[in-house]
Amino acid sequence: MRILVTGATGKVGRRFIASLLAEPRFSEARIRALCHNRLLEETDRISTLRGSIADREIAVGAVADVTHVVHLATCKETPDDVMDVTVKGLFWLLEAFRSSPTARQFILIGGDAAVGHFHHRHDSPITEETPHRAYPGSYALSKVLEEVMLEQFVIQYGINGSCLRAPWIMEKDDFKHSLSFGDDVFGGPDWKTMVPTADAERYARDGTVPLLRDADGRPLKRNFVHVDDLIAAILLAIDNPQAEGQLFNVCMDRPVDYGEVAAYLARTRGLAHVDIPSRYHSNRMDNSKAKYRLAWRPRYDLEMLIDSAWQYERSQDDPRIVWYPG
């Protein structure tokens, strides 16, 4: 078994490689890590290839002789790159994969941007049958095109393709910083732009957290997944007949309720909150298909997500770095 991992140096890539190499079931597996800006250290089980999947020769060389592809590489809101890397790059990988005599399974990690997550109102839980509904911007469009392209390669050529659709992926102290009113905010919304500057500075200093309200005035509900739970799902999908040709929602059992977050942080850490109105919509992803077909269960609930983020202490050699915009 030789597994190509694109986006190998990212949050999910590094954790996936470490977890797979530690798993007895994959003791004979070898990793080919496709890296772009950063490199992994090579070992007897990890080889590296540097380049961009937007380059057809790089993509073809990366897929040569591999049995599996775990495709993690993507772009965020970078219109100059997103079509070349995310869309054309996936096309080159799939073209090489479908004609490879060693290819066994192609796993794509998708995102809930493909269904618009909280930008669109969903009147029922988001399932794998929910129609694609990108929100404005290049990133959401690319996630729709990724899922559709893989689905069509499964239909056109009969490849063994699987997509694990994940919402916002958390690790370490990510969730804590996703609620920061300071410049260290992780992801969006950028809370400091939604309140007066003096208030934002005070909230950041005091550790005040936002209680985001949806378009109906209720505490917003948004889906998350911890990276450890996503990795567990990927490992279960590898060589699993139940994953062939399937799309799975991989998320926490319940969406994160910003009202419950504020209440829990007030009770456990004495932190205040401030209401933030929005035009966003609450929604819930349904993960029952992944539970049923993959026998997967997420470990992280709301309290575990919060506690792990607030208790995490970064070492000096592990600075918080945002590698992509958006």
Q: How do the helices and strands follow one another from N- to C-terminus?
A: EHEEHEHEHEEHHEEEHEEHEHH
Query: What is the total domain count?
Result: 2
Large-scale geometry: globular
Q: What Rg, in angstroms, do the CA atoms define?
A: 20 Å
Q: Report the sheet-strand fraction.
A: 15-25%
* Strands ordered across the widest β-sheet: 3-2-1-4-5-6-11
* pLDDT < 50 stretches: none
Class of the largest domain, according to the CATH hierarchy? Alpha Beta
Mean pLDDT: 94
> What's the N-to-C terminus distance?
35 Å
Residue share in helix: 25-40%
Structural class: alpha/beta
CATH topology of the largest domain: Rossmann fold
The CATH homologous superfamily of the largest domain is termed NAD(P)-binding Rossmann-like Domain
Tell me the number of helical segments per DSSP (H or I, 4 or more residues long): 10
CATH architecture of the largest domain: 3-Layer(aba) Sandwich
Number of strands: 13
> Could you describe the largest sheet, including whether it forms a barrel?
7 strands, parallel
Polypeptide structure, described:
With 326 residues, this protein is an alpha/beta fold. It has two domains: 2-171 and 223-254 and 283-299, Rossmann fold (3-Layer(aba) Sandwich), CATH 3.40.50; 174-220 and 256-276, no CATH class. The chain has ten helices and 13 strands. The chain has a seven-stranded parallel β-sheet with strand order 3-2-1-4-5-6-11, sandwiched between helices. The protein has a two-stranded parallel sheet with strand order 7-10. Strands 8-13 form a two-stranded parallel sheet. Strand 4, helix 3 (79-98) and strand 5 form a beta-alpha-beta unit. Helix 1 crosses helix 7. The longest helix has 20 residues, at 79-98. 41% of the residues are buried. The model has no long low-confidence stretch (mean pLDDT 94).
